[in-house]
Amino acid sequence: MTTQDTLKAKLVFRYYPLLDMALSLLVLGNPESFGSDLAWAERVRGRLGDGAAGDDALAAALAEAQSNDLFALAFEQEENGAITAAEMWKQLAGYWNAVAPEIAAKAGLLADSVRDEPAKLATMEVGAFLGRFSDRISVAGDGESIVLHWGKGVRVPVADLERIIFVPSVFCPRRIMFYRLGSVQLFFYPVERAAPAVDAPVPESLTLGFAALADGTRLRLLRLVARETLPAQEMARRLGVNESTVSRHLRLLTEAGLVFRQRQEGKLIYYGVQPGTLDQLVAGVKSFMLQRQESPEED
């Protein structure tokens, strides 16, 4: 069996409702990264209650998610059926009732995706298959590693993984999002993917990169890190903002590959800039702008 075959054999497609719920809380808890005008988010807030009652219910659910490894607990619950952290799930019951109608409305699409994607994988080279989801995931060598384009780039040896699970999602705001649970690599992708464009699709690395740059605070953070390696606490002090604001902005800059975690000293994480990413963004947008649209052949 070749390394490509080994990689393909580890790719699994399955829907996990509790994992999707966990992802929805991650999205709602980070509006700077994912936006605050998501249609499903408004519907979920409405089901939680009007006014202060709804705000309090959402805040309680977000607090549970932040104080627990909700992805790990949800995965364990889905895989093994054993109820752990029973009190946490009790606290999240109201939130689950608010998101469940969103999942139910897409049940057919979710089932179709879990059925159809493996059939597509069987007919394609694995690198090309993964590239259909986003240019932020690629295959290194002959299938020996998966490269996640996040921060400085993360190379995940396929030999270290038992399974690579692709999870269609009702709530995923990116073309691809990833989460590592021990020997399992999770990839979330939106179940309602855009129809193929007539011309070349915009690479996700460009949309994320320019979105990260389109904010004054993030530009000031990037300039600080370009001048010297700093922890988030010192960045907050110099910019006159709180640490949680800096942390949220750094997550988006890291996701776009503009900064990376350079080192850790005790509880302090020092960030460095990725100067090559700016050059790649400029080159990437020039390349995209100059791409020629292929015309249909004339009879």
Structure description:
With 299 residues, this protein is an alpha+beta fold. The chain folds into two domains: 3-190, no CATH class; 204-287, Winged helix-like DNA-binding domain superfamily/Winged helix DNA-binding domain (Arc Repressor Mutant, subunit A, Orthogonal Bundle), CATH 1.10.10. 54% of the residues lie in helices and 16% in strands. It has 15 helices and ten strands. It has a four-stranded mixed beta sheet. A three-stranded antiparallel beta sheet has the order 2-3-4. Strands 8-10-9 form a three-stranded antiparallel beta sheet. Helix 11 packs antiparallel against helix 14 (243-255) and helix 12 (216-227) crosses helix 14 (243-255). The longest helix has 17 residues, at 51-67. It is globular. The model is unreliable at 295-299 (pLDDT under 50).
Please name the defining characteristics of this protein.
globular, 54% helix, 15 helices, alpha+beta
Give a short summary of the structure:
This protein is of the alpha+beta class and 299 residues long. It has helices at 3-10, 17-28, 31-34, 39-48, 51-67, 70-80, 86-91, 93-105, 107-122, 126-131, 204-213, 216-227, 232-239, 243-255, 275-290, and strands at residues 11-13, 137-140, 145-148, 154-157, 163-169, 177-181, 184-190, 230-231, 259-265, 268-273.
